[in-house]
Amino acid sequence: MSKGWKIAAGAAALIAVAGLGLWAARERLAMAAMEKIYDRAMAPDAFSDLPDGLHVGLCGSGSPMPDPGRAGPCTAVLAGQRLFVIDSGAGSTKNLSLMNLPPAKVDAVLLTHLHSDHIDGLGELMLQRWAGGGASAPVPVYGPTGVDQVVAGFQQAYLLDRGFRIAHHGEKVVHPLGFGGTAHPFDPPRDGPDLLLIDTPDLKVFAFPVQHAPVEPAVGYKFVYKGRSVVVSGDTAVSKRVEAAAKGVDVLVHEGLSPELVAMQNRAAKAHGRDNLAAITHDILSYHTAPQDAARIAQRAGARYLLFTHIIPPLPMRALEGPFLGDSRRLFSGEIRVGHDGDLITLPAGGTQIERRNRLAIFQ
Fold first, then answer.
1. Is 61 in contact with 90 (CB distance < 8 Å)?
2. Which residues of 273-301 are buried (b: 16+ CB within 10 A; e: fewer)?
């Protein structure tokens, strides 16, 4: 064997030994990584890695349609140290924890409307905020007329569990008065000004009506914090109120439904005699917004960033994001993104920067 071959063989042997060593140490390395993750998750200041500002994250970017990559509808807004959750779809509470936006830190929940996919995770969220944070008062839950019935229903459903947890952990750990939520129903006038829900020197939160008939009322929300602004459309057809609220905002978080892709579902349902699903995939076109129309709204409003959520239909392959958007990139001159669970957009206070990261990436 030549000298060159001997060197190559020796190098290959060293690489193999190193590889075997790393394989043997994988469990130890994984345990060390998890210790760091738990330390970060348990730290008293969960938001220490974020600058003072307005942050908007997707704790759930999906819809009622089954999607293994997306939880039910949920948008988190962090204004300084105050954490708000808009809608609470299935699986979204777990995403909040994974994004290091702890349910225990939730200041208030705001519901856009009372469709099942926007409320089916509310019981879990209220429970995790109570038990995980030792809350001594229920979480405020703002929403359109009827939200009091929803909150009362979840509290009744979780009443036995409340007793079990108090009996197991004791009242010092799970305070009896911190269980559940307190409903704050409202009905913004369709022809009146936006309704101011939260008013502090630094933070203002508005609600405004949107078009989601026959769901009435349905609303969107606007957050303004230290010169930065975010609008969350909620579920809606093309809405002038969304456009008016989004004038000059940094970020517009808008729902999106692709008529072309939903038409494929409709054709398949008809071909196989699934009359109920054919009817549903026809009817949903009337109260959602095509991505191109949302792009036009964002352009006319002068929004700087358009983030799509409540994605219909599911997009199991990234290659489908182009067909989902259609001509949206041509219609909107700002930055545009098909949202994914874990996306977090940061707007530092007093500045103009828009930064994006994904806080679930470590688990993917």
1. no
2. eeeeebebbeebeebbbbbbbbbbbbbeb
DSSP letter (8 states) at residue 307: E
Q: Are strands 203-209 and 219-225 parallel, antiparallel or unpaired?
A: antiparallel
Token pair listed for 106: 């939730």
Active-site annotation, residues: 117
Instruction: Report angle CA 88, 89, 90 to the nearest 5 degrees.
Output: 125
Rounded percentage of the chain residues whose pLDDT exceeds 70: 92
- How far is 154 from 158, CA to CA, in rounded Å? 6
Q: What backbone phi and psi angles, to 5 degrees, belong to 202? A: -100, -25
| pLDDT range class, residue 330, cuts 50, 70, 90 | very high
The helix/strand/coil state of 178 is helix
Cis peptide bond prior to 138, omega within 30° of 0: no
Question: 332: buried, middle or exposed (CB in 10 Å: 19+, 13-18, 0-12)?
Answer: buried
At 351, the pLDDT band (50, 70, 90 cuts) reads very high
Burial 196-212 (b: 16+ CB within 10 A, else e): ebbeeeebbbbbbbbbb
At 207, list the tokens. 């609600």
pLDDT digits (tens, 9 = 90+) for 234-257: 999 999 999 999 999 999 999 999
Q: What is the pTM of this model?
A: 0.91
